[in-house]
Amino acid sequence: MRLAAVRDALQCEVLAGEDSLSVDVETVVASDGMSEILAFGRPDALMITGLTNIQSVRTADIAQVRAVVYIRGKRPAANALDLAKEKRIPVLATGLGMFDVCGILSGLGLKGGM
Fold first, then answer.
1. Which residue, 28, 63, 65, 80, is the most exposed by fewest CB within 10 angstroms?
2. Are the CB atoms for 68 and 47 separated by under 8 Å?
3. Domains contained in the chain, CATH given
4. Predicted local confidence at residue 112, as pLDDT
5. 10 near 104, Cβ under 8 Å?
């Protein structure tokens, strides 16, 4: 599924990587625990989290995820957004909660990465 379709389905605002919406994702890893994402995530997955500090972007980089979606109306810290831009990791934000986001993405055919 293209990241642009994820944006539309989750009613996301693109905070970084507007030019990367043609990226494909097939799996999703969702957690506020960065150690879980590092332990169980798959490369090229879409990361869903409510953790907005710079560690979330560092985790995304190390875990080689394709993009990050921040949930519950949260927005990343400025230094996290700067790092995402530097690492070329697309960042989106939605007002939806974790349960709803995972349900919508599962309904669209994406698989869990954990």
1. 63
2. yes
3. 3-112 (3.40.1390.20)
4. 87
5. yes
Beta strands in 1-49, from DSSP E residues, in sequence order: 13-16, 27-30, 46-49
Residue-wise burial string across 74-112, b where 16 or more C-beta atoms lie within 10 A, e elsewhere: eebeeebbebbeeeebbbbbbebeeeebbebbeeeebee
Residue 4: predicted pLDDT: 97
Mean pLDDT of 24-42: 91
Phi, psi of 57 (to 5 degrees): -75, -40
Beta strands in the chain (DSSP E): 13-16, 27-30, 46-49, 67-70, 91-93, 111-112
Token pair of 44 as six digits: 């090229």
What's the one-letter identity of residue 49? T
